[in-house]
Amino acid sequence: MKKSKKTNPIDDLWNEARGGARKTQIRMKSLTDVRRFMARVINDLDDNRIFESKARTLGYLCSVLRDIIRDSDLEERILKLEMEMKKNGNQY
Prior knowledge:
- This protein has a domain at 28-87.
- The protein is an all-alpha fold.
- It has helices spanning 9-17, 31-46, 52-87.
- It has three helices and no strands.
């Protein structure tokens, strides 16, 4: 007969706060995805499921990712406009 492993609730909280095991990776390709993720981080922090330092780090990384998404969206729009201008015979 196997003994069930007793876990300490503090150890469970510590593991979860440090990241714990995640079943799926988080995909953040849009600003909406970043917003949803940050809402989850805020809720986890409010429920004491993650440490403040981790929430702060994730917030910082989300702000960096937000800027990257905005810049890449802008770059894509500029490239489309340039292609349209070339197609119509206008030089920039």
